[in-house]
Amino acid sequence: MTVQANASDTRQLVEELSSHVQGEVRFDKMSRALWSTDASIYQIEPVGVVLPKSQDDVIAVLETAQKYGVSVLPRGGGTSLAGQTVGESIILDFSRYMRDVIEINADEGWVRTQPGIILDELNQMLAPHDLLFAPDPSTSNRGNVGGALGNNSCGAHSIIWGKTVDNVHELDVILSNGDTATFGQLNGDSLEAKMRGSNFEGDIYRSLFEIGENNRDEVLSRYPKIQRRVSGYNLDEFVGGNNFNMARFVVGSEGTLVTITEAKLRVVPTPKYKGLAVLHCLELIESMEATVAALDINPSAIELIGSMIIRQAQSNLSYSRITDFI
After folding, report:
1. Best CA proximity match to 280, nearest among 272, 290, 295
2. Handedness of CA 132, 133, 139, 142 (dihedral sign)
3. What's the rounded Cα separation, in Å, for the pair 20 and 15?
4. Domains within the chain, CATH numbers bracketed
5. 208 to 84, 181, 201, 237: CA distances (angstroms)
């Protein structure tokens, strides 16, 4: 459906959304321009923008969008570098209202939160409990939890704490038809019960299980066995038998499968001590060899800073005073 080309359909879409959504419905030219970009080089004007206030708002948007044949694109902080949060869709921006921390369970090591909260703000709320959500991408002071889930974000310390997918327990999601579902760890009887379901969720479990069974050898042979693979759908999560967590399949799917409204995330104790070692290398190959050797002492992170960045820092008044040790 070409909504933007049909003014009558656009008015009907806006009227229906406005009557069912408690949050903000923005289809004006200014809003469409503001949400047409992210941190990437791309610019695509959306059909419109909705700032939901609740799960019911999200359901209303998905049901209405399906009725009018319009795609929906979830968005957080817009820090993506490859255009993941721009498109000719209805943008669902969670960063304004759906940003609450719902529950912190320090004893069991998890937090339940909405997708619109900024990563650093989440960790500020966890700090009094001496806990943190481990994935720490460079945009953590602007990026949202929902964005980390959508992109399977990593960060400098993924070498010890893993990717976002390794820190997810459950996801509350809205399916494309407006149905709600909770994706979490299943095995044995619980998995079979889901697969026997006569609803859309049951169809999803049966289809995904069948894909895993029929393509097991192909998936195992083609998916690289590396620490930081965040490309494509996580089909390799479902080729090992009857024990899987659908939430791990959703992570990294960039909003193409479901819309996340809540997440139960693993949190870890804040490190009591921190240390930094600096190695000076003259050549890139020398630094690469040093990286391999450094892995033997189990570092939490290894970062390469090139000479150009160092020279720029030394010539900057704000940073030159802290680069004298280089």
Report:
1. 290
2. negative
3. 9
4. 3-93 (3.30.43.10), 101-269 (3.30.465.10), 284-320 (no CATH)
5. 24, 15, 11, 11
Cα(46)–Cα(75) distance, integer angstroms:
12
CB 48 within 8 A of CB 14: yes
Greatest mean pLDDT among 168-182, 185-199, 213-227, 288-302 lies in: 168-182
Residue 5 has pLDDT above 50, yes or no: no
Cβ contacts of 291 within 8 Å, gap of 6 or more = 302, 304
Half-sphere CA count of 15, side-chain side, radius 13 A: 6
Number of Cβ within 10 Å of residue 210's Cβ equals: 12
Instruction: Give pLDDT, residue 224.
Output: 85
**Is the Cβ–Cβ distance between 114 and 102 less than 8 Å?**
yes
**CB count in 10 Å sphere of residue 162:** 17
Q: How many residues does the chain have?
A: 326
Q: How many whole angstroms separate alpha carbon 231 and alpha carbon 242?
A: 24
Q: Is 90 exceeded by the pLDDT of residue 229?
A: no
Q: Which residues pair with 131 in a beta bridge?
A: 269
Contact call for residues 173 and 183 (beta carbons, < 8 A): yes
Worst-scoring range by mean pLDDT, 68-77, 222-231, 243-252?
222-231
Would you give the distance in Å from CA 274 to the centre of its chain? 27
Taking a C-beta distance cutoff of 8 angstroms, is the pair 58, 90 a contact? Answer: no
